[in-house]
Amino acid sequence: MPARRVSLIWQHAPTLYAPARYRKACSYEVYIPAKLAELELSLQAATAGVVSDAEQVIQRLNVAAEPSLVPLARLLLRTESIASSRVEGLQIGVRELACAEEG
Q1: How far apart are the C-alpha atoms of 16 and 25, rounded to whole Å?
Q2: Under a CB-based contact definition with an 8 Å cutoff, are residues 23 and 17 in contact?
Q3: How far apart are the C-alpha atoms of 97 and 80, rounded to whole Å?
Q4: What distance in Å separates the CA atoms of residue 48 and residue 30, rounded to the nearest whole number?
Q5: Using H for helix, E for strand and C for coil, what is the string for 33-60?
Q6: Nearest to 82 by CA among 73, 91, 74
Q7: How far is 28 from 50, CA to CA, in rounded Å?
Q8: Confidence band (pLDDT; 50, 70, 90) for 56?
Q9: What is the per-residue pLDDT for 54?
Q10: Which end of the chain, N or C, is surrounded by fewer C-beta atoms within 10 Å?
Q11: What DSSP string runs through 18-32?
């Protein structure tokens, strides 16, 4: 099944705990991606070789620099967590996050 867009109607929901504009009926579109299991994926030999080389370099970097990369890894994880929470409509400031992390 190829990817497709589908038009749907959001039903009026007077009991929904949300601002009035979100409880109104409206039309919207959803994107339904193709199932990954149905896709035939293949890499050219040269591309697969480059990916393999990159994996090996990253493994060597992780082994050689592991202790010094831990603070960077924590920072990147926290940054990604904040960004994904914003996508979901949740927001937390850096100060609140630091206080929560410290307990």
Answers
A1: 12
A2: no
A3: 13
A4: 34
A5: CCCHHHCCCCCCHHHHHHHHHHHHHHHH
A6: 91
A7: 42
A8: very high
A9: 96
A10: C
A11: S-HHHHS-EEEEEEE
- Yes or no: say if 51 and 44 are a contact pair by the CB < 8 Å rule: no
Residue 13: what residue type?
A
| Tens of pLDDT, residues 16-25 | 777 877 778 8
Helix axes 94-102, 45-87, angle to 10 degrees: 90
pTM score, two decimals? 0.39
| pLDDT tens digits for range 64-101 | 887 888 888 888 888 888 888 777 777 777 788 778 77
pLDDT, residue 19, reads 81
- Structure tokens given for 71: 């603070």
d(CA 76, CA 55): 19
Cα separations (Å) of 80 from 57, 75, 86? 24, 9, 10
